[in-house]
Design brief:
By secondary structure, the protein is mainly alpha-helical. It is 62% helix and 0% strand. The longest helix has 38 residues. The chain is elongated, with a radius of gyration of 21 Å.
């Protein structure tokens, strides 16, 4: 395969993974907002939601994430990635369009992208693990009415934005996974025969 074509495809793929990183940060912060509102809602007005951050750039999302997460190692790694993403977004494709760089230089840049992609995927995995820890801290919490508390806001936001959400094991549909309240029934769905 032509090294320029391969470089371009990889640059586009890495930029797409940076979009995924932004989405994961929005989900993490959005969930944190839900939990904060639930924990402090009766004491302090906290009216932030995922909708408030949906257009935030990576740098601002990382600033907020830093205030809500204690994994300093991940934060440092993400900040390094932010600088590399900015360079990639502003320069990588221009290099190809302007015809800059000979085959050897592009091969070196391609190799650098390969390592960047590895670090990005590793950070995405760690961020996902951090999200799992966040959710596990709040799972099983019971409200004043004795019912398990649900936090549907982020899942609802994802549906509104047509972002795939985990499939419910019961329905195999694109609905946020929510626990049923005792005594509640699932709505009947008409099916074609």
């Amino acid at each position: 395969m032509d090294v320029k074509k391969s470089y371009k495809e990889m640059a586009i793929r890495v930029l797409g993974n940076f979009q995924l990183l932004e989405l994961c940060l929005k989900i993490y912060v959005g969930k944190s907002y839900e939990f904060i509102r639930h924990q402090n809602g009766r004491f302090v007005i906290f009216d932030y939601s995922i909708g408030d951050i949906e257009n935030f750039p990576l740098e601002k999302l990382l600033f907020i994430f830093k205030k809500m997460n204690r994994n300093r190692s991940l934060q440092k790694r993400l900040n390094v990635l932010k600088d590399q993403r900015n360079f990639l977004a502003h320069n990588a494709l221009l290099i190809l369009m302007d015809g800059l760089g000979d085959k050897d230089e592009i091969h070196t840049w391609h190799s650098d992208l390969y390592h960047l992609e590895d670090e990005l995927m590793s950070c995405l995995k760690t961020l996902s693990d951090e999200g799992g820890l966040l959710i596990s801290r709040f799972s099983g919490q019971v409200g004043r009415d004795g019912q398990e508390i649900e936090f549907p806001e982020v899942g609802d936001w994802m549906l509104q934005k047509n972002i795939p959400v985990p499939l419910s094991k019961e329905k195999k549909s694109a609905e946020p996974i929510r626990k049923k309240k005792p005594g509640s029934r699932s709505p009947k769905v008409k099916t074609e025969k």
